[in-house]
Amino acid sequence: MSQPCKRHYLAPLIVKIPALGLLLWMAGCSALPNLGAVDNLFQKTNPQIGTVAEADRQSISPPQEANQEAQWQQRYSQALELGMAAAVATQTAESASDWQQVEEQWQQAIAHLSAIPGDSDRFATAQQKRQEYEANLAYAAQAAAAKTLPTATVLSVGDGDTLRVQGQSGPVTIRVACIDAPETRQPFGAEASLRLRQLLSTGQPVEVRAIERDRYDRTVAEIYSGGQSVGLQLVREGYAVVYSQYLDGCAATASDYRQAEAAARAARLNFWNQPNPTMPWDFRRGAAASESSGSQPPTVAPSPATPPPTAASSSLPACTSGDCDCGDFATWEQAQAVLEAFPGDPHRLDGDDDGVACESLR
């Protein structure tokens, strides 16, 4: 009795050697005392293919490849569906848990795109979409982090990038991170201060992402209101510029800051609506802007010569060697000490001439 065999193994013979293949098909496996002989015969007549088994594999390879490509297409489609759901959820996310769910959706979409191999027809498109989704993931992660940051209450606004908040351990002076607003006596300096007061009114709750302390003992931090970066909004509206020297403090969203500044500059919004705006750091130095910044010397009347300070000046802030404004002080006491140390108020800290410096810091 002949042993059962897999007749499909003989299919390539029927294609390549019809007569022999058909005979073996009808006779069954018992007609072949040595299956290796069939392989030898097939190789001699079809040297470009090889054995019968290899021919069999080649005969089923195209459908397998097609199935795999269909799987990668399905992965890509699933990624797009997840991305669309994440984009919709982004528009309504409010709480930290909402943003965390958005994060998870972007992560799942990215995982599907990452699984598509380099030999797939979808690989290049998937990589482009993956970069887009990774940027969206970074934004969602930042928003989620902002919702879980320590909260504080706004006490006052000093200028376009400085404010005082009531933290858990007491009042804190905040220098808004990664941006630089025009100084009070610069063009658009007063407007920048007003805009920050509009965004952060007294008593308003904010989230604080502390980064470091500066040389004036102020806390350098990103401030969030309603999950949105206040500093980024000031840059977007043209009331502040990106402080590139310290942008590493906002590494996760550095590209957002640069893009916001480029858009505001192109639209000539506020500070950028000047032929040759002087960068705030150049204005503070009181020197012409460097060639790399492309700014010009400030067009303001020269200040009167600063009188020599009193003996107590050894403990005064470093800004007294140049030009101080209210944003340079961590406390009202520091500002008042400078006012008293320099008769005539050359730093213009007492705007209403009532003998009290920087009342916004009190």
Largest sheet: 5 strands, mixed, barrel
Report the total helices.
11
Overall 3D form: elongated
Percent of residues in helical segments? 40-55%
The chain-level structural class is alpha+beta
Taking the alpha carbons of the first and last residues, their distance comes to 106 Å
Count of extended strands: 8
H/E topology pattern: HHHHHHEEEEHEEEHEHHH
The neighbouring-strand order within the major sheet is: 1-2-3-6-5
Write up what this structure looks like:
There is one protein chain. The protein is built from 11 helices and 8 strands. By secondary structure, it is α+β, with helices and mostly antiparallel strands. Helix 4 (52-92) runs antiparallel to helix 5, helix 5 packs antiparallel against helix 6 (123-147) and helix 8 (230-236) packs parallel to helix 9 (254-266). The N and C termini lie far apart (106 Å). The model is unreliable at 6-10, 13-17, 55-60, 287-293 and 295-313 (pLDDT under 50).
Describe this protein with a few key phrases.
362 residues; alpha+beta; five-stranded mixed β-barrel; 11 helices; elongated
Strand and helix layout:
Elements: H1 11-16, H2 18-27, H3 35-45, H4 52-92, H5 96-114, H6 123-147, E1 151-159, E2 162-167, E3 170-176, E4 179-180, H7 189-199, E5 205-213, E6 219-225, E7 228-229, H8 230-236, E8 241-242, H9 254-266, H10 280-285, H11 332-341
Parallel strand pairs: 3-6
Antiparallel strand pairs: 1-2, 1-5, 2-3, 4-8, 5-6, 6-7
In short:
The chain is 44% helix and 12% strand.
